[in-house]
Amino acid sequence: MFDLGALGSQFFVGLSRAMILFVVCSGLSFVLGVLRVPNIAHGSLYMIGAFSAYSITKLVAGPAGFWLALILAPVVVALVSFVAERALFCHLYQREHLMLLLFTFALSLILGDLVKIVWGAEYKSIMAPELFNGSVSVMGASIPRYNFFLLLVGPLVAVALWLFTNKTKIGKIARAAAVDREMVGAVGINVSWVFAFAFVLGCFLAGLGGALVAPTVSITLGMDHNLIIEAFLIVTIGGLGNMWGAMVGSLIFGLTQAFGVLFWPQFAIVFPYMAVVIVLIWRPTGMLKSVW
Amino acid sequence: MQRSNLNLYVIGPWALILVLLLLFPFVLPRFYVYILTVIFVTALLAMSLNMVVGHGGLFQFHHGVFYGVGAYAFALMLTKTGLPMWLCFILSPFVAAAVGFLIGWFCVRLASLYFAMLQISLGSLIWAIAFRWYSLTHGDDGLHGIPVPDWISSTSGAYYFILFFLVLCLIVMYIMHRSPFGMTMQAIRDNPARCSAVGINVRRHQLTAIVIATFFAGVAGVLFVVLEHSVFPDLLFWVLSLEIFIMCLLGGWFTFAGPILGAAITVSLRTFVGIYTEYWTLILGVLLILLIFFLPEGVMGLFLRKVRKGGHAEEAPGRGQHAQG
Q1: A109 in contact with B, Cβ within 8 Å
Q2: Could you report the predicted ipTM of this complex, rounded to two decimals?
């Protein structure tokens, strides 16, 4: 059978992949929960996050560049999404649902080409700071240090998001708007701005995910397509709009992918999709309670 | 459908278009004939999707898979088995329909977005298999130089061959659209709860519609191979599915012929804007946003409204009174 080392190292690979997926999917799930719109442009914003992180590390050399990128890249993405939301998207909230979906698709087409115009079509890569170079040996498995950092960031984002939605006023309003937007409007809250805020926050998380993934993969133009479909599946199997569901879904997706590599390398990409099929047949509305 | 509906008013414009299309290869340069053929194949694919999306109200988000399965089935049968070409041609759409039945059987149990997601994941499974099963499908490279008989491999030969099957399929689709079954599907789209209350087996109808639609998608896939002599995994990728979904919305998804227009617009845009700039998707995105803001019924929807101002908008949703003809 498989040795424990390989199993353990794949476990950590899957876990850290799941954390990146979680950061992105929690944003998608938040937008889905409050606005009820599957944001197809989420993948493009993730890609912009990764490309901005590249540009920032080019401008500021050394480890400071990486940390700055981690903070500034999501802010860039949030700004882009804020402009798109206030200029165009906010005028469509009264419209048919499918039109909103179509809008986010159009946005993803535009953003995808804008990335091509700004950054070109070449592969890009950035280095993690020296602190994260090398790997640590745990129970015979060697695990890159950067993965430990990801394992730290994932739960941190989860806790921050939980505190935000449950303990702050604006977070509570956003949750209330998710359940009953008419009622929220009726008590005198500007629902349009709540939506804007939720959209920008969700996109911020997409950008953060992009910045986090940047040192581990090559940054290319197709990365939005690969991610967005995974993100949708994760959010669905977790339970639409449920943040912890996004976590559960990410873990399922990341781990099945990682262990799939071990069991049948050629068809490793099949395993996560199979897991999704099984979950959806077993629990048609996702693992956890959806807010819809 | 009753024969009385086929009056000159309906048939006339279509017959004119058909005659023009039959004459085009004599006057147009080869490149334009080729582009028209691409539009035919894409239009058939978009029409098959609209059977379930526009007229059935199902979130068929991964329709491209069945197109790809039809194309792969045809290509593999031609290259790996000794079956005659016509038999492969007939069998391949049935393979697509069988896959459609299998995927549809699981999907109709779920509603709206969950339906879409289950279909995307099942479709992605098929994509992943085609992508990775290198010994059979040559994975990422795909299969090229598939032997197609000489008489349909020339540009004008392929043009007439594909046009013939497009027209044939469109006639069958139109008959289905106006048949009691088609009317029932539109009723299910408009009010599933009431339909099931009056004793219609909603799931079985939806599954049947999916199987029929996937059959036509398989035909489109076969025609793609006839045109391009090759298959590759991108035919099964979800981006294509989204693209044809957009074509239906662009053309007008509550109209019968809207998706043809959507396909024509998208393909021409990609081809002719693509000549001047590589950023044609940017143009498509801007166009889509303009469409959302100013033309929510799609191009065909606007056209029909202008033409039939004050008249009966028989294709409009929620108007099933022509069911008895």
Answers
A1: yes
A2: 0.81
Q: Do A114 and B282 touch (CB under 8 A)?
A: yes
- Residue B80: its pLDDT value, please? 85
pLDDT per position as a tens digit, A121-139: 888 888 877 777 777 777 6
* Residues of chain A found within 8 Å of residue B278, distances taken between Cβ atoms: 116
At residue A107, the pLDDT reads: 92
**Tokens 């339909």 sit at which residue?**
B195
Are the CB atoms for A235 and A205 separated by under 8 Å? no
Q: How far apart are CA B171 and CA B159, in angstroms?
A: 18
Query: pLDDT tens for residues A266-292?
Result: 888 888 888 988 988 888 887 787 776
* Rounded alpha-carbon distances, angstroms, from residue B55 to A185, B70, B252: 35, 23, 11
Alpha carbon of B69 to those of A12, B75, B77, B214, B230: distances in Å?
Answer: 36, 10, 12, 10, 13
Rounded to 5 degrees, φ, ψ at A124 are -125, 155
A211 touches A69 (CB < 8 A): yes
Instruction: Write down the H helix ranges in A134-269.
Output: 145-167, 169-179, 181-186, 191-213, 223-238, 243-263
Residue-level pLDDT at A27: 93
Residue ranges of domains in chain A: 4-282
Domain A4-282 in this protein, CATH class:
mainly alpha
Q: For B235-247, give the DSSP string.
A: GGSHHHHHHHHHH
Which of the residue ranges A5-9, B275-279, B304-308 would you say has the lowest mean pLDDT? B304-308
pTM equals 0.85
Which residue in B has a C-alpha nearest to residue A90's C-alpha? Answer: B293
What's the length of chain B?
325
Of the candidates B55, B73, B42, the one whose C-alpha atom is nearest the C-alpha of residue B246 is B42
Question: B264 by DSSP, 3-state: which?
Answer: helix
| Residues B121, A280: C-beta atoms closer than 8 Å | yes
